[in-house]
Design brief:
The protein has about 150 residues and is of the alpha/beta class. It has six helices and nine strands; from the N terminus they run βαβαβββααβαβαββ. Strand 4 and strand 5 form a beta hairpin. The longest helix is centred in the first third of the chain and has 14 residues. The protein starts with a strand and ends in a 9-residue tail after the last strand. The relative contact order is 0.18.
Length: about 150
């Protein structure tokens, strides 16, 4: 079963925009949306390792908390959680969060999220991907997998 993405975001507009972009890119991983850091921690803690998300997209400000607090918590967890790829979604002009994310070694994408920036950030993660072409609809479907996953050719 294809691993999902986790989107930690509390803005309905941003959630809808990001999900629409992921679909336009052709990504078929399901998206689990969570609106608070404690809920995201519970979700990740309760996940079976094979169902952990392949990427966690973290909004910079989540219900009055700094979104990167989830990243700090993740890095203190066992290897399967600590190894999940993270992309920070930062507000335009939020230089402090962008610098903090860079210091933590994670990619950032400025909101409102643009397709090219999102694709570049996801490509920078170096995750295995499998593309399928649907000849009937002339669309490409792309699956992203966690780092270290061996995909059949």
């Amino acid at each position: 079963m294809l691993p999902p993405f986790l989107l930690l975001e509390d803005s309905y507009t941003d959630v809808q925009s990001i999900i629409a972009l992921l679909k336009r890119i052709g990504l078929v991983n399901a998206v689990r949306v969570i609106g608070s850091i404690p809920d995201a921690q519970r979700y990740l803690s309760d996940c079976v390792p094979s169902r952990l998300p392949v990427i966690v997209f973290i909004g910079a400000q989540i219900r009055g908390m700094h979104g990167l607090a989830l990243l700090e918590w993740m890095r203190e967890q066992p290897a399967p959680i600590a190894a999940i790829a993270v992309i920070a979604l930062v507000d335009a002009g939020d230089a402090a969060t962008t610098l903090e994310a860079a210091a933590l070694g994670i990619a950032t994408v400025e909101k409102p999220v643009e397709m090219r920036a999102l694709i570049a950030a996801m490509k920078s993660l170096g995750l295995p991907e499998k593309a399928k072409i649907d000849v009937a609809s002339l669309t490409v479907q792309v699956e992203l997998w966690p780092a270290g996953t061996q995909l059949d050719a």
